Amino acid sequence: MFKDRGEKGIALFLVLGTLLVVIILTNVILVLMSSQSRLTHHQVSRIQAYYASMAGVNYAYDQLRKQLINVPPSSATTVTLHDENFPGSIVNKDVTIVIATEGYNFPDGTTCVPAGGSSHCIRSTATYTYTP
C-alpha cells in the first residue's frame, strides 16, 4: 500500500494531529458547560432570593391588613422574617422587611411616598450568597 517508508510517518502525524484537535475541542466544550452551570446556579440563587423577598412583602401586607403592626407617623419598623423553608442560598434564611409611613427618609436618601392610596411603604431584602 505504501511505496516509501516516509509516507508511513505522515499517517502517524495525521492521527496525532486529529487526536490533538479532538482533545482541544473536548476541553473547550467542558469549559463552556462548566461555565454555564455556574451561571445557572447563580441565576437560580438570585431568583430564589427575589421570591423570598416577595414573600416578605406579602407578609408585611398581611400584618398591616390584620393590624398586627403599628408604625408611628414618619417612622419605620423593621421586621425579620425567618423561615427554615427558604433555600440554602439565602443568608441565615432571613428576609429583612422595612415598613415605613409617609414622610420617612430611608437610609439611601429616598423618602416614603405611598402609592395608590396606601399609607405605608414596604421594602423587603433577602441577601443571598453564591459560591461557585
The parts where pLDDT drops under 50 for at least 5 residues are none
As a percent range, the share of helical residues equals 40-55%
Give the domain tally: 1
| Strand neighbour order, sheet with most strands | 1-2-3
Oligomer: single chain
Distance between the termini: 55 Å
Total count of helical runs of at least 4 residues: 1
Question: Which labels suit this protein?
Answer:
132 residues, 1 helix, rod-shaped, alpha+beta, 3-stranded antiparallel β-sheet
SSE inventory with pairings:
Layout: H1 5-65, E1 76-82, E2 94-101, E3 120-125
Antiparallel strand pairs: 1-2, 2-3
Question: Can I get a quick summary?
Answer:
The protein is α+β, with helices and mostly antiparallel strands and 132 residues long. The chain contains one helix and three strands.
How is this structure best described in words?
The protein contains one helix and three strands. The protein is of the alpha+beta class and 132 residues long. It has one domain. 46% of the residues lie in helices and 16% in strands.
